[in-house]
Structure formats: C-alpha cells, structure tokens
User: Fold these one by one.
Assistant:
Number 1:
Amino acid sequence: MKQRTNLTILDRINEFKRIEVARRRQQTSLEALRDTAGYGRRCVSLADAIRGSKHYGIIAEFKRKSPSQQDINVAADPSAITAAYANGGAAGISCLTDQEFFGAQPDDIDRVRAAVTLPVIRKDFTIDRYQIHEAKAMGADAILLIAASLSAGEIDEFAAEANEIGLEVLCEIHNEEEAAKLSPEVNVVGVNNRNLKDFTVSISNSIQLVELLPPSLVRISESGIDDPQSVARLRREGYDGFLIGTHFMRQADPGRALRDFIAKVGEIEELYDGAIA
Ligand SMILES: O=P(O)(O)OC[C@@H](O)[C@@H](O)c1c[nH]c2ccccc12
C-alpha cells in the first residue's frame, strides 16, 4: 500500500477534491447548476485578451495563502484588489477557489465578477467534470487543467466539455512528459515554473520547455515571477503572457504594484529595442 508520507501536496489536494466534489454534487445537482444566472452568462475570451493585451498579457492572481508560501494576504478583499488589477493593466484575473489549502471564500468569484469585465480564470484542482459546470455557474470565463493530475484522455475530454459550454481552458504543464498530453481543445498553455510536488521554482523551466509548445496555442509562463526583467526575457523566448500572484498580493497596494511592474517591463524593452536598433 502507498504510504501517506509519500504523497505529494498535489496528491493530497486531489484526494481532498474527490471528497469535496462528492459532497457538492449531493448539495447541488448538475441540473441545478445549469439553472443559475452565472451559467447563462456569455464568457469573455482569455486567449484573445492575452493576445490583444498592450501590457504584456499579465494575468494577475487573487490569492490569500498557499501551501508553498503560507499566508500571503489573508485579509485581502477580492473586489477591491481585482478592480485595482484591472485599472493597473491586467489582461485577465486568476482567482483561487480552493478553500482548504488556499483560503478562498465561497463567494470570491462572485465578488471578482462584480468588480471587473476582464476574463476570470477559476483556479482550482479540476479532477471531475462536475467542477467544469460549477466554474461556469460561478461566472468564470476559463478553467485550469493541471496536466500532472490528469491523463491525456481526461485533458482532452474535460477541455472539450468546457469549450462546449463556452469556457476556455488553461492547461498547465511542468515538464516534457506533461507537454505531450496537450490537446487541441486547450486554448492557453501555461508552463509552471513551480514544481507542485516539491515547490522548487525555476524560471528557466519556461525557457527549456518553450520549444515543445504548439505554436497555435497562446503561451504563458506561471509562478515565481517577481521581476520585470524575467518578463522581458520570457517575451523574447516567445511567451505571450504571465501569471503572477504572490509578488503583487504581498504588497500594500497590489494594483499599483502591477502598474509599476508593467511600466518597468516597458522601460526594459525600450532599452533592449534601442540596443538592437
Ligand atoms: O503566486 P505566484 O508564484 O506568482 O504564482 C501564481 C500562479 O502561477 C500559482 O498560483 C499557480 C500555478 N499553478 C497553480 C495550480 C494551483 C494553484 C496555484 C497555482
């Protein structure tokens, strides 16, 4: 038998999710989810927002705490912060909805939805198709699929089901083996710089994997980005966007931090363009 001590954090979260999903399904049926106002809402395209961004395609994340960073900003208000992210130049919003490990509250997406018109990613650990419909009912525009947790068949199936109800899919990979699981149903591919098994972070992971990413997909680099220089570098490698949470959430004014960050990327790119002109 597999020993509990050998389970990674991702295994533990996914195990918890199976119980959570079973409980939620008892409380609210799929049919009831389909009757919600959120479910009837027309989604905004995340891929288009990243591609069309004039501010480097930054998806700013709302996150109170995490297993790797512990408390980040536990008293944070989702409406105020994401409205400030929108004003600061975000291309999209990522909002954690896991309560147990990430400290989310049940109405977080509602509050984000009320505050912004940007595309919103429901950031959770999707291991069951029920969660796809739940994301739609919550008013999200896109869901996250973590390749480390799913088979190639599940990624394809879940992504197709999400697309069918208007949701886009961000599929997250961390290595070559996971890159091979990408499906044509996926809209955005994210290379995670953080290893979800041991929490080590390395931006060079995005640099190494970029050549394996299908050119048709919008590409983003995720996690551990805290320096405008890294964004400028990764853009030269072919990344269209960036998912950044902790660096902004830790600051007194996350919206302003995003605005300043974007301005610095601009300065770096100007210098770079000047140097090669
Ligand atoms: O806070 P950071 O290091 O800027 O990272 C944001 C985002 O990439 C990270 O929260 C994340 C990436 N993949 C995930 C999967 C589940 C939960 C969270 C994540």
Note: Residues 61, 63, 123, 146, 172, 192, 222-225, 243-247 surround indole-3-glycerol phosphate (CB under 6 Å).
Number 2:
Amino acid sequence: MSEYEVICVEYAGAKFSITTFGGHLLTYIPPNQSSDILWCSSCHKKDMSKSIRGGVPVCFPQFGHVHDKISPQHGWARLQKWTLLESTERSVTMTITSAENQKPGRPDGGMWPANEGCPYRARLTLTVSLTDLGALSYVMKIKNESSVSMPYQMLFHNYFSVHAEAEDFGVSGLSGYEAIDTQPRGREGMGMDYGTQGEGKIVVDGEVDRIFHGKGPVLASIARGGGEGEISVEVTAEPAKNVSCVVWNPYVEKAKGMGDFDDDGWKGMICVEPGLIDGLQMLVGGEEQILKQVIKFSK
Ligand SMILES: O=P(O)(O)OC[C@H]1O[C@H](O)[C@H](O)[C@@H](O)[C@@H]1O
C-alpha cells in the first residue's frame, strides 16, 4: 500500500482506519470491543489491482455494470487514489474528482461518456468520524462541478462481520420494501421480482443478492448471530431521496469462484449496502447531494 496512506483514529473508546486507496474504510471497532465489526477477506488483492474485498468500498458513479462492460463494475471511485484533506482527533476527510479519472485512452467513469467531451465533473468528499458515544458517522457529499445535469448512482458497500449460519443471525428493517434479485436468473434476465419484503428477517440459506427499494431513509439492523450483538445502519439523504439497500452473501459456489474471497468466507459476512440506486439519479449543475450513514453496535 506504500503509495497509499492509512489513517487510524481512536476516540471515545472506538477505533477506525481508512486508506486513500478508494477512500476505503478498512476497520471499525466500536467502544469497549476487541474486534472489528467490519469483515475483510484474508485473501483480498494487496496490489491494489482490485478494490479491497471487505470494509466499506464506495460505488460511484454507478452500482454494478453498465451496458458498455468496459467501465469498471461499481465505478471508478473505489479504485482510485483519494486526496487526504484533513485528519483530526476524531475524523478523517478525503476527496476525489472525476477529472482525476479523465485520462486519455481509457473510458471514463462508468456510465459516463468517454473522457473526451465528457461534460460531467463530480467531486466526492467523504468524512468519517466517531461520535461522542463512539458510533461511526460516514458522510459522502457529491458536488456537481459542471453546469449540466449529471446522472449518477452511489452506494456504500458495507461488509459486516457476522455468523451467517447461526440461528440468531438475520437482517431486519427492510419490511415493506420492494425486493428484486440483482442477478439475471429471473424472467428473461430481468431479475427476479420477490415482491414486497415481509416481516421476517433476511437470512442466508443460499446466495442472497437482492435490491430493496424503499421510500425515504433506511434503518436496517443486523443481528450478528452467535449472541454477538446487533449492528444498526441508519441512512439519510440530504436533500431527501429514496434510499435503497442491497443485501448480498455469495454463499458456497460463488465464494469459491472468487479469487479474492476465502472459500468459507461467506459464513462470516453479510453485505448490507445502502445507496441511491433506484434508477438513475440526476444532480443539477452546481448542486450537492449528501448521503450519510451512522453505524452503531450494541451487545
Ligand atoms: O465483486 P464486486 O465487484 O466487489 O461486487 C460484489 C457484489 O456487489 C453487490 O453486492 C452486487 O449486488 C453483487 O452482485 C456483487 O457480486
């Protein structure tokens, strides 16, 4: 990681670490805990040729692939070097602009047109901090620095450390959301429509890869299983927008097929990923959009 900085913060009994590679949050240990509640693969790529498999990668300017298939899955923001703006006793702020990715000879920024003539200019500014009670606040601001409206999507790809096979494991808080399978295994490759999510917890009994579209903010909670407490993720957008949430666990076969994923790593993780991904989002020239998540742990 030599060309990338790793910044460690300890405040109110809690700790986090973050790197300038991808503006990637690596670890978060809540107050009075000895272990990380974020999960990271033991065999993730250490040469930065891929996004780190764990912690919190950010997906921007799109979630998933776009039609050209040349643009990187989940966008460029998680693959580039961010600039450290400020580091205080309880917070770290980093930034990146799309201009830094408009290099000759490569497609620019996912869903956006190739660099030459690309009219969009985005600045992302991420501030991660610890609250007085040691909760983790993660705030992303997108500014459209161009004069034209800019299409985008953004998502926080949180990997949490859990016991996915335990009876007391499960994700709740998404009841009433419209659930769609992200994989093309449903009707004619359009994704399977699961209908409205019921009251039950989401568990891992096979590959789980679903998008939940809701109306308004998100408050999801994850019972970690094995009596290891509960994580809550509270997400708000300013100005207000509908926040969606992806829940992902690759299960046995897909985990084995990924070179940077431990074969049985699926047993120890769940991704709960809030984002602005209900269709294309538009940001007017000169305007800002904030998406914020607060992660808390209770035993
Ligand atoms: O392997 P990555 O590009 O990091 O993507 C990891 C996963 O991200 C999301 O959760 C998607 O819904 C999954 O379909 C995808 O497999």
Note: Residues 51, 73-74, 182, 209, 246, 248, 271, 273 surround 6-O-phosphono-alpha-D-glucopyranose (CB under 6 Å).
